[in-house]
Design goal:
Blueprint (H helix, E strand, L loop, with lengths): L4 E7 L10 E7 L7 E11 L1 H8 L15 E8 L12 E4 L2 E3 L5 H4 L10 E2 L11 E5 L3 E2 L7 H21 L6 E5 L3 H12 L3 E5 L3 H10 L3 E3 L9 E6 L7 H7 E9 L12 H5 L4 E4 L5 H13 L6 E5 L3 H9 L6 E5 L4
Parallel strand pairs: 10-11, 10-13, 11-12, 13-14, 14-15, 16-17
Antiparallel strand pairs: 1-2, 3-4, 3-8, 3-17, 4-5, 5-9, 6-7
Helix pairs in contact: 3-4, 3-8
Length: 341
């Protein structure tokens, strides 16, 4: 690889998307450090977490960071001590979780997603809104066959975090699952639940999202704060709207669990103990994922074909993609296509 500069988007001044916090720049191609792969980005999903980084909902970890953590890429160079799992020319996935210490009590008991030293692609280190990026080989993922690059990108965060959220929701076999919000992550998670035999009910704004939910096999689809037609055994909140916690908890049957999938949520209003919490209903957060979650989910998608609905944008329209995501104009998942020049 002889290219020394690349096109990229970085967060110039975090703020509302209407203030244009991203800037399109030409920067040096990064060099892979020890244990890292240098990869040429093929596609990069546009995640709501990228929006939170750009708008400042998440505190700045790396000034002028290049967002993007749903990256399908080709290995073009190896740093020292990368092991033998990946070689030049391999197609790999780059996801949100980039580093854990491997030594703390959380890492040692299989909860590396809670590691206090954890680092994240597109927040602590530059990500995939660029022609090239790096990834530690230990945190790169083999990809399932049978999917296009555009279809694979949303699986690498939207899919993985949805899969962990489904685990956290403790949906009983054959149970009724409520999904609040129906964007990139939710439309993938619904299909995983359906493949496992669940009955899925969707609450979301937007007629197109409700139509997509029904087309994928949901038993019902209604407004974001509407009551589902049945009591739910479990629910997942994907929309970053704290107000929805109340109707979601109220929709749970006895012993039900609500898992909150996002890294950011607006404030939750006061709960009424009897209406929202009693009868052993539970409220759980979801924090990132483990590499085991990622490998298990990607293996699942190799066995079960997931229909990934995408809206594709060229890399030079990344700011437009984020604006469309913010305004609710994206049905399914937005994906950046990076052309090779």
């Amino acid at each position: 690889m002889h290219k020394t500069s690349m096109s990229a988007w970085r967060v110039k001044n975090p703020g509302p998307i209407t203030t244009h916090p991203l800037e399109h720049v030409t920067v040096a191609v990064p060099a892979p450090g020890p244990g890292e792969l240098l990869v040429a980005v093929l596609t990069c999903g546009v995640c709501r977490t990228d929006l939170h980084v750009a708008e400042g909902d998440l505190p700045v970890h790396r000034p002028h960071v290049i967002p993007g953590h749903e990256v399908v890429a080709e290995v073009v160079a190896l740093g020292e001590n990368t092991g033998d799992e990946f070689g030049v020319g391999d197609r790999v996935g780059v996801a949100w979780l980039r580093h854990t210490c491997g030594e703390c009590k959380f890492c040692l008991r299989g909860q590396e997603n809670l590691c206090p030293q954890s680092l994240y692609t597109g927040w602590d280190a530059d990500g995939g809104y660029a022609e090239f990026t790096t990834v530690p080989a230990a945190f790169a993922h083999p990809l399932p066959a049978g999917y296009s690059d555009a279809e694979l990108a949303p699986l690498l965060c939207a899919g993985i975090i949805g899969y962990r959220s489904l685990l956290r929701a403790e949906l009983p076999r054959g149970g009724r699952l409520g999904i609040y919000g129906f964007g990139g992550s939710a439309h993938i998670t619904a299909q995983v639940a359906l493949a496992q035999g669940a009955e899925v009910h969707v609450m979301t704004r937007g007629e197109a999202a409700r139509e997509l939910a029904l087309s994928l096999g949901a038993a019902s689809a209604q407004g974001a704060a509407d009551a589902p037609p049945v009591k739910l055994d479990a629910a997942i909140l994907f929309a970053p709207v704290g107000d929805l916690v109340l109707p979601a908890l109220e929709a749970l049957d006895r012993g039900g669990t609500l898992a909150i999938a996002g890294i950011y949520l607006s404030d939750i209003p006061a709960l009424n103990y009897e209406r929202h919490v009693f009868f052993e209903r539970q409220l759980r957060s979801v924090t990132s994922n483990t590499r085991e979650d990622a490998r298990d989910f990607l293996a699942f998608t190799g066995r079960h074909r997931i229909h990934v609905t995408t809206r594709e944008y060229p890399l030079d329209r990344a700011a437009d993609a984020l604006a469309d995501l913010s305004a609710g104009r994206v049905s399914g998942a937005a994906v950046l296509q990076v052309s090779r020049r």
